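Page 37, top half.
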Amino acid sequence: MSDAVLALAALSYNIHSCVGTDRHYRPDRVVELVRSLNCDVVGLQEVDLRARAEDREQIDFIADRLGMQAVSGPNMVDHRGHFGNALLTRLPVRSVRRTDLSVGGAEPRGMINAVLELDGLLFRAVVAHLGLGAAERREQVRRLLQVLDEGASDLPTLVMGDFNEWKPNGGALRGIDRRFGQSLAPRTFPSRFPLLPLDRIWVWPRAGLKRISVHGEAAARVASDHLPVRAEVAWDARDLPQAWKDACLKNGGIHLRQSGGQG
């Protein structure tokens, strides 16, 4: 870890509108759970901007309590407001692109594609929520990858979300696995007795993933119907794309710490 160029912790969590398995609306429980996991980047799904907490929108309440900034990615809009994804972070946000992943007459879905900065170095954080049907998910994966490959495809990348894929390997997520490496598939749903690996985090380059864990303590089993997934990430200089290193050196005299003389 001492040779890490980029080191951070990331969380993916479907908060179910802050309605717990006890059917109580308690945004404060989500706040305390996320705070206890101490992450730099948090991807949330099923954030209900139509709901209020202490006379504020739900996402503003959560972000303020955590001391983080929020990037909203609404998938659904009605007369009451927005519902969808959100990205929370303590880090500077350099750019944001929101993409509609909705397919046909199915429930609206979407993704947030943000470029963040850590110690002068850029990386990409993606938050997505895919649909319930296998064919729907395959089309959404195709679009997601198309968007990511259109832009800065050499940026170190986190892909977080509720992907609604119950198969541990393959399924509709084969395209993401081919692009970013096989995802680990810990069971996260339903939170009281987790059976299905719906919530995933991909880290690219893959060598940066040091640990992934599901948090199933008693509080988490009540706060939402999904359990949160946490990834510890640390990319060494030798792990990172050469194009990214070249751009860093060109644009700011950023000194990448080398490990064992390799770059």
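Page 37, bottom half:
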Amino acid sequence: MKATSTATETAPDFFSTQVSHAQRFYLNLKPSPKARLAVACGGVERCASDYAISRPTFPFYSVEYVVEGGGRLKLGGTEHRLQPGSVFSYGPGVAQEIATDRKQPLVKYFIDFFGTESKTILTSAHLRPGTAASVFPPAEIVPLFDEIIRNGRRGTPGAAEICARLLEALALKLTEARAPLPGREALAFATYQHCREHIQRHFLRLRSVAQVAEECHLDDTYLCRLFQRYDHQPPYRWLVQLKMNHAAERLQLPGAMVKQVAEEAGFANQFHFSRVFKSVFGIPPRAMIKMR
């Protein structure tokens, strides 16, 4: 497979040729000192088995995100292991070394950008130039990268502005989806992941935080602390959101009754269910039925 890109500009010389497939776009490769935030280029690359780059600096700020494969990364002298979910940034004055695992070549997204707000955007995402982090689940931010690439490749008059706004959204999403790197927090985060997956699998029958904690062999106070640290919300709020999302979908089906849907979601009392539903969506269940 050959690399593909928009045809309006020649690929810059900092792009590696050691790729088996790439989908790229170029919007503005001439940084303006007056720009607030502008996307220069971006794309997704499937690296060849010999992929390796070493640069003492880079003309733009950049965010790269690994979705497949593995490899190693060195930013400003600090080494990191690359795996699905790894995200890292660099920019002017930051040395980079990136190499793929030969047996499991990297597949990674990248966005290069410039402007007076570039550092602020990265700092807000806790990803200042020269640092790395991890995202959970690994595919969480892929849709945003895909949307940036789609709009960048269209080349419409509004593409540059749309891509800049999507980049800001990406920074917000990185903040929300950030996970700890391997280290002393790894065990706590793994416990959180296990509990989150348990809730997602069994949310219809689960009734309380105490039940979740018991089934996950944890103290309910510790379970709440884990969610506040990694999910920024109590576990019960997420449990209720899953139940209500399911209920909203069921109420859209022909013949669905409020009482029946309430029982499916684990509510013995239809009126309690209706109050919770309205607190989440702002409308009662019967109003959802009328929207069919």
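Margin note: The CA atoms of residues 64 and 110 lie 4 Å apart.
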